[in-house]
From TrEMBL:
InterPro entries the record matches: DNA_brk_join_enz (IPR011010), Phage_Integrase (IPR050808)
Highest taxon of source: Bacteria
Family statement: Belongs to the 'phage' integrase family.
Keywords, ordered alphabetically: DNA integration
Organism: Novosphingobium fluoreni
Flavoprotein listed as a keyword: no
MF-aspect GO terms: DNA binding
GO BP term, example: DNA integration
Protein name per UniProt: Integrase
Amino acid sequence: MEVSVSCLGKPHKAMSENAVNQGLCKLGYTTDRMTTHRFRAMAATMLNEMGEWNPDEIERQLVHVDTNQVRRAYARGKYWDERVAMMPHWSDYLDRLRDGGKVCDLIVGQRKGLDLK
């Protein structure tokens, strides 16, 4: 089972990347500021930086296909339980960004503040 943002009135049809980008444009975001792909890149980057999840779990959550054909043929795990556990952490992180709370201290040579538990 995959979960995605759906079209209004069509709950079983995922919104296209272009539809989301058009929505962002209507909210005042130009494509040089934010796109659907940038949301996905941000999620991949931050979830990997949190260090709590296997990169394969993150890639599966983003519905990325492994470019290595041999690996793709044998690595078919869905990581459902891990992905379900990942999403509340991601949601909490986004809530802290929205609310202007402490998200991450950036200190040269040291990572700090990435534990989202």
